[in-house]
Amino acid sequence: MSESSASLSDLVVERVDFGIFVLDREMNVLMWNRFMHDHSGLSAEQVVGKQIFASFPELPRVWLTRKLESVFQLGSFAFSSWEQRPYLFKFDHDRPITGGVDFMQQDCTFMPLMRDREVVAVCVTISDVTAVSIVRREREEAVAKLQEYADRDGLTGIANRRYFESRLRDEYTRWQRYGGDLSVLLFDLDHFKKINDRFGHVVGDTVLRVMAQRVAEVVRVQDTFGRFGGEEFALLLPCTPLEDAMLVAEKIRCKIGDTAIDVQGTLVPVTASVGGACARTGVPAYEVLINEADAALYSAKRQGRNRSVAFN
């Protein structure tokens, strides 16, 4: 290579917008370009000729040593994505702090440098992919939020019917495979149409929201509480026999009905009827479980409302 070509190569290496440094087998730095200088604060004169860990003790020593050793032994390229390891060097980034990342996110390439078919050094490149990572994270968060909204009832914030039934289907499949206990409660507010007619739909919506909050306070983390539509709600109780489920039903009924709901100074009395059913031999599908709980619910209403009834 001519002297002018060599100087052009050096100029390119210095001016490229990504980090380039070279390490020998003893982890000594042989080259350090301008990008590395600008982002680390250490010049080539300060770093070259020294072991990389002497200048950067915070580097992941075990991981980096293993990565480089594989390149030396196999003579093939290696790569590390920011998704696997967010960064190698703790470099600052120029993105807004609202992006949710502390340091520059980096993709790293490890390239063997050969002489006489032997790897004599490894060239490591550092690419700043902070912008890409932030966009990816924001997209994933947006998708997760949309999924959460898709699973939630817009009025009460609890699970909607579609999500509830998907959870029930999964739990029913688990019960079919492993056995145990599984119960479902269906309940709705008594004479809710009268509440809407007397106080208006705005008050009715408030009643539904407050009722959902009250019930949410007594359900377990592993339970799924959802709105079936209108004033009808459902509670999925995994690993719960029907006897215990009916104790929960009574707790819910009392939680709803013991205290009138205050809506802008207007006290609205509310009661609920509850029906319960459990998975057992002879129940062929989870839909049957819902139908049985629904039958128990209507039995509670026929018996005078404001009570809990188990399917028999």
Automatic annotation (TrEMBL):
It comes from Paraburkholderia sartisoli. GO terms for biological process: cell adhesion involved in single-species biofilm formation; negative regulation of bacterial-type flagellum-dependent cell motility; regulation of DNA-templated transcription. It comes from the Bacteria. This is diguanylate cyclase. GO terms for cellular component: plasma membrane. Residues 5-56 form the PAS domain. Transmembrane segments: none annotated. It is an enzyme of class 2 (transferase). Its EC number is 2.7.7.65. Pfam families: GGDEF, PAS. Residues 180-312 form the GGDEF domain. GO terms for molecular function: diguanylate cyclase activity. It catalyses: 2 GTP = 3',3'-c-di-GMP + 2 diphosphate.
